[in-house]
Description:
Elements: H1 17-35, E1 42-45, E2 49-52, H2 60-83, H3 97-119, H4 122-127, H5 138-171, H6 173-187, H7 193-213, H8 217-235
Antiparallel strand pairs: 1-2
Helix pairs in contact: 1-2, 1-5, 2-5, 3-7, 3-8, 5-6, 5-7, 5-8, 6-7
Amino acid sequence: MSTALSIVVNTPQRDSRPAWVILVAMMALTQFYYWTRADTIGVTAVGRGWVEMTGQSMTMLQHNLAAGLILGLIPLLCAKKLCGLGLRDLGLGLGRPGRGLAWLAVGIPVALLAAKFSSVQPEMRAVYPLDPGLTTSPEPFMRHAGLQFVYYSSWEILFRGILLYGLKDRFGFASANIIQTALSVVAHFGRPFTETASAIPAGLAFGGVARHTGSVWYVVIIHWAVGVAQDWFIVS
């Protein structure tokens, strides 16, 4: 009598969604950095003069709307289509409002202090505000602040939403937070060193707030407060 032995080897299927999340973010950042800027990045060398490395600068309206599209809406659609991730999966619900309000009570004063500190630095004043014609006149400044909210919302959707929330289940929160912070820091290249360096602790902290509150929107408000307050302090 012979006995047939059947051995079944179950090979775990690899989840390719994290790779798609990172690929979408890289493509969005590359497009945004080179072709939808409100300023121009270039190089200068002896005997070669000034050479522009990025596309023609956009108006502030175009720049901020492009951010909403390229950093926000398109990556969201890709995350839904390629990874099956919905808005709540990416931290785009209200999360835990009690914790969120507590973080805003702490984060907004810190944001205003950081904005005041950065606004007196010559290298920051050489770059910001990106709108060289910005003044403290109420209507134009409120319009500027509104457009900036679109910009910072799209930034946080990409980094603390799609990257952090899209990767944490696969890699764990700590690793996902480091990955999104690393890409955020790279996205600051071409800005003043102090801004790029501060993006390291800020990115990690923003990731922590997004996780603790279950939503990216409280981080959006804090990040937006830094940028808008800095512009106000510079032009006032």
